[in-house]
UniProtKB/TrEMBL annotation:
<dbReference type="InterPro" id="IPR035920">
    <property type="entry name" value="YhbY-like_sf"/>
</dbReference>
<keyword id="KW-0687">Ribonucleoprotein</keyword>
<feature type="domain" description="CRM">
    <location>
        <begin position="280"/>
        <end position="376"/>
    </location>
</feature>
<dbReference type="Pfam" id="PF01985">
    <property type="entry name" value="CRS1_YhbY"/>
</dbReference>
<feature type="compositionally biased region" description="Polar residues">
    <location>
        <begin position="51"/>
        <end position="62"/>
    </location>
</feature>
<dbReference type="GO" id="GO:0000373">
    <property type="term" value="P:Group II intron splicing"/>
</dbReference>
<dbReference type="GO" id="GO:0006397">
    <property type="term" value="P:mRNA processing"/>
</dbReference>
<feature type="region of interest" description="Disordered">
    <location>
        <begin position="42"/>
        <end position="82"/>
    </location>
</feature>
<dbReference type="GO" id="GO:0003723">
    <property type="term" value="F:RNA binding"/>
</dbReference>
<protein>
    <submittedName>
        <fullName>CRS2-associated factor 1, mitochondrial</fullName>
    </submittedName>
</protein>
<keyword id="KW-0507">mRNA processing</keyword>
<keyword id="KW-0809">Transit peptide</keyword>
<dbReference type="InterPro" id="IPR044599">
    <property type="entry name" value="CAF1P_plant"/>
</dbReference>
<keyword id="KW-0677">Repeat</keyword>
<keyword id="KW-0508">mRNA splicing</keyword>
<dbReference type="GO" id="GO:1990904">
    <property type="term" value="C:ribonucleoprotein complex"/>
</dbReference>
<keyword id="KW-0694">RNA-binding</keyword>
Length: 415
């Protein structure tokens, strides 16, 4: 009996789960505090966000400052900085290939806000361009002086002409399988900001590949002329719409010209209407009948979006030999694009615009049409190899055809 009482006295009381959890957390905290070396070894101090707040009622939430209103870069204060001065000897335009100094607009769609931003350029904006010479002081002598300065700068940068081996090596480095660097020239043509892109490419390579697409390719000669005139470079290869532009022997990237950037695209000015109510020399009824006949004739060709239109002018010239009206299908193109194409055809063929209805371009050759004497074929490829003086040799399809005929005649005569 005694033994049983002793055994019963040594039994422990059961511990509840809450008590066991409290004992475990106290023991773990004590062991962690004694075994942790963060403070002694690493001098660890917990951030304030981890420390418990002693008196949370005393701290008041601070008010968040309001976010400043957005202001575009053009309206930011320049803090008394002087406007950018550029010594480039030509007028700054948004597009150098799609605008001409000889064509004057009849009005402006907006006030004369400079696309370079207020107070950022030392040239005034006329609504169309930022002239290098004050329009009040402009004269024929000043234009000739600017042209001479461009020629001198280009000759100084180009230096000695490239040899055939050097040109071929540069062209090879710009091929698609060698580099992906390329500048795309689209519907706006050679824009002002594209000049800065070309110089940025010239920092890494001596030549840059340019792909021309869309409306500007109707007049590839103008694209090549403007590229060489505005960048002071030289085109060393051309195949359809692909160009290779060389920077020159004496080009120094650190001494590149200052090109201020346009911050936005200016509004196009108002030009005279391309399609008149009546065609010159015809009555109202004759004009209506001609437009109906023009929309009914078979289409000469269909223009693809962002395609190459370099062969369009000779095609229209050839068609005018036998046809009076020519229709060009422009379905899928923007209305502004095929209007620009029609304007270029009017000046290059030349011809008379009849209508732009139903996404078609209809042109008339006129009453007293005379074929152009400079040929009806243009070169899709230009060869720049010349062992004597490195002059440009243009491969003309018409000359090749005549050469082939002469060779056949000589061959038949020998037999």
């Amino acid at each position: 009996m005694f033994v049983c009482i002793g055994r019963l006295s040594r039994r422990r009381k059961p511990i509840s789960s809450f008590t066991a959890l409290h004992l475990y957390s106290t023991t773990a905290a004590t062991s962690t505090a004694t075994s942790s070396k963060l403070h002694t070894k690493y001098s660890f101090i917990p951030p304030p966000s981890l420390k418990p707040q002693q008196n949370p009622s005393s701290t008041q939430p601070t008010k968040k400052l309001p976010k400043p209103r957005y202001r575009p870069p053009s309206s930011l204060d320049r803090a008394g900085l002087d406007p950018v001065k550029s010594n480039l000897p030509f007028d700054f335009r948004f597009s150098y290939t799609e605008s001409s100094a000889s064509v004057r607009p009849i009005g402006l769609r907006e006030p004369k806000y400079s696309p370079f931003g207020p107070g950022r350029l030392d040239r005034s904006w006329t609504g169309v361009c930022a002239p290098a010479v004050d329009p009040k002081e402009a004269s024929i002598e000043s234009e000739q002086e600017l042209a001479e300065n461009r020629r001198v700068m280009r000759e100084r940068i180009q230096g000695e002409p490239l040899s055939n081996a050097e040109r071929k090596a540069l062209v090879e480095t710009c091929q698609r399988h060698r580099t992906k660097r390329q500048i795309n020239l689209g519907r706006d043509g050679l824009t002002h900001n594209m000049l800065n892109d070309i110089h940025n490419h010239w920092k890494h390579a001596e030549a840059v590949r340019i792909k021309c697409m869309g409306v500007p390719t109707v007049d590839m000669k103008n694209i090549c002329t403007q590229l060489e005139d505005k960048t002071f470079g030289k085109i060393i290869q051309r195949h359809c719409g692909l160009l290779v532009l060389y920077r020159g022997r004496n080009y120094r990237p650190k001494k590149r010209p200052i090109i201020p950037l346009m911050l936005w695209k200016p509004q196009d000015p108002v030009y005279p209407r391309l399609i008149k109510t009546t065609i010159d020399g015809l009555s109202i009824e004759e004009t209506k009948q001609m437009r109906k006949r023009g929309l009914a004739v078979p289409a000469l060709t269909k223009l693809a979006k962002n395609g190459y239109y370099g062969s369009l002018v000779p095609m229209v010239r050839d068609a005018f030999i036998t046809e009076e009206l020519v229709r060009i299908d422009c379905k899928g193109l923007e209305r502004s694009d095929y209007k620009k194409v029609g304007c270029k055809l009017r000046d290059l063929v030349p011809c008379i615009l009849v209508t732009f209805e139903k996404e078609q371009i209809v042109v008339w050759r006129g009453k007293d049409y005379k074929p152009v004497q400079d040929g009806f074929f243009i070169a899709d490829r230009e060869l720049f190899d010349d062992l004597q003086n490195d002059t440009v040799q243009v491969v003309d399809q018409n000359e090749k055809r005549y050469a082939l005929q002469e060779a056949q005649e000589l061959y038949s005569g020998d037999e």
